[in-house]
């Protein structure tokens, strides 16, 4: 990736002194777009990214077509995603779409829709994310990519639909999509797509409670990330590995991985869209280690970060784990705060339709009822959670909580 950065830097230096023909403008914008993409992959200063965008914008304004400028705006929006400015990214994408007309390149419409879909998922606009994803897939080809569509791009969008469906609670359907896309990515040697799909697979495995699959994916993610030496890829990979350890009850290993992932994010300033999720997962790892005070402090921070970055999906998990840690400590006003946190998590579920989270919230409400000595409520919430786990396709989770209900 650093070789690519050197390449595009050299291109920018050379064309700076050339006449702005349409061909030169096209090369200049390709350089600016490539550099902005590397900004979030490698982690660069905000000043440098803004400078690159401003340089590209000067060239875009010389073009007779609005398409190149819209494409550059799309790359700028993607960079804002990775520095954690979700609302700003969505606004930039809207501006880019407004630049297009009926004669604009269909591939550019598709590119912007795919990027907006990811931002919408982070913001908790799941139905919009699903609609945009389906529109992109329809334009790309539903069974296989249409001529001119990159196979890796098609695989990413197909598998991304599985991620959206995961949060919506359609785990069986999502699992089939993710598995099929992973098999195709491996078969055709699409390394970047394979890595991204494994990340989606870890998220899916968290909701189903499959620690074995999560660990398989995460270890291979780490191998890939270390090989390409991308801070964004390394941060995502070690977060995945931390989640896999959480699922297996390997708390200290989870802490080590998640602290490392968060350290990469904060040091390099990239992948910040996942900062709140990393903090939330870290909180649960501290809880598992028995460090409840630290777990609660980190969970509170996770909620604050998620709210400031407008990442509603991550706020849901942060509120869930805050409630869990507070119930575990159960000192002073902890149970009242836990009730508020779990109420916040349920409100997000209802607002965003992230049904995959609802049984988890119900399970923690059962623990809260137990801490308050309300056994009838505890039993009702456990039964409700078990039924919801079965509804979303998390049968192993349903069995776990049903067994807990039977033993109580």
Give an account of the 3D structure.
By secondary structure, the protein is mainly α. The mean pLDDT is 94. α8 runs parallel beside α10 (191-208), α10 (191-208) runs parallel beside α12 and α13 packs antiparallel against α14. Helix content is 81%, strand content 0%. It has a domain at 1-124: Serine Threonine Protein Phosphatase 5, Tetratricopeptide repeat. The chain is built from 20 helices and no strands. It has helices at residues 2-15, 22-42, 46-60, 67-82, 86-99, 106-122, 126-140, 151-167, 171-187, 191-208, 211-228, 231-247, 251-268, 275-289, 292-309, 312-329, 334-352, 358-371, 375-392, 395-407.
CATH architecture of one domain: Alpha Horseshoe
Q: For this entry, what is the oligomeric state of its chains?
A: single chain
Q: How many helices?
A: 20
Average predicted confidence as pLDDT: 94
- State the end-to-end CA separation: 55 Å
Strand content: under 5%
Q: What level of helicity do the residues show?
A: over 70%
Which segments are poorly predicted (pLDDT under 50) over 5 or more consecutive residues? Answer: none
What's the helix-strand series?
Answer: HHHHHHHHHHHHHHHHHHHH
Major sheet attributes = none
Structural category is mainly alpha
Based on CA inertia axes, which overall geometry fits? elongated
> Nearest-angstrom radius of gyration?
22 Å
**What is the top-level CATH class of one domain?**
Mainly Alpha
The CATH topology of one domain is Serine Threonine Protein Phosphatase 5, Tetratricopeptide repeat
In total, the number of strands is 0
């Amino acid at each position: 990736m650093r070789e690519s950065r050197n390449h595009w830097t050299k291109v920018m230096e050379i064309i700076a002194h050339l006449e702005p023909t349409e061909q030169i403008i096209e090369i200049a914008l390709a350089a600016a777009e490539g550099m902005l993409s590397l900004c979030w992959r490698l982690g660069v200063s905000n000043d440098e990214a803004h400078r690159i965008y401003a340089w590209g914008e000067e060239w875009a304004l010389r073009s007779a077509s609005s398409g190149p400028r819209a494409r550059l705006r799309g790359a700028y929006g993607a960079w804002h995603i990775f520095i954690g400015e979700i609302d700003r990214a969505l606004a930039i994408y809207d501006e880019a779409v407004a630049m297009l007309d009926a004669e604009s390149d269909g591939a550019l419409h598709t590119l912007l829709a795919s990027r907006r879909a990811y931002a919408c998922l982070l913001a908790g606009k799941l139905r919009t994310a699903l609609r945009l994803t389906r529109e992109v897939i329809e334009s790309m080809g539903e069974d296989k990519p249409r001529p001119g569509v990159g196979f890796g791009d098609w695989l990413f969008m197909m598998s991304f639909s599985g991620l959206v469906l995961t949060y919506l609670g359609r785990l069986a359907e999502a699992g089939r999509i993710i598995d099929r896309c992973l098999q195709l990515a491996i078969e055709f040697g699409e390394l970047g797509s394979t890595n991204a799909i494994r990340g989606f697979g870890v998220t899916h495995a968290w909701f189903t409670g499959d620690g074995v699959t999560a660990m398989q994916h995460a270890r291979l993610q780490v191998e890939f990330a270390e090989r390409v030496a991308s801070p964004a890829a390394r941060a995502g990979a070690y977060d995945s590995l931390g989640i896999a350890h959480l699922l297996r009850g390997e708390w200290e290993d989870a802490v080590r991985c998640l602290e490392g992932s968060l350290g990469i994010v904060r040091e390099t300033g990239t992948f910040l869209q996942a900062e709140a999720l990393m903090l939330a997962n870290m909180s649960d790892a501290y809880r598992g280690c028995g460090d409840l005070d630290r777990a609660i402090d980190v969970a509170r921070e996770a909620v604050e970060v998620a709210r400031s970055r407008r990442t509603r999906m991550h706020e849901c998990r942060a509120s869930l784990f805050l409630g869990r840690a507070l119930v575990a400590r159960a000192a002073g006003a902890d149970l009242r705060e836990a009730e508020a946190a779990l109420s916040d998590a349920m409100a997000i579920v209802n607002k965003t339709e992230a049904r995959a989270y609802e049984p988890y919230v119900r399970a923690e409400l059962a623990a809260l009822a137990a801490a308050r000595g309300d056994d009838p409520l505890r039993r009702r919430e456990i039964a409700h959670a078990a039924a919801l786990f079965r509804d979303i396709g998390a049968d192993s989770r349903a069995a776990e909580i049903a067994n807990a209900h039977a033993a109580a």
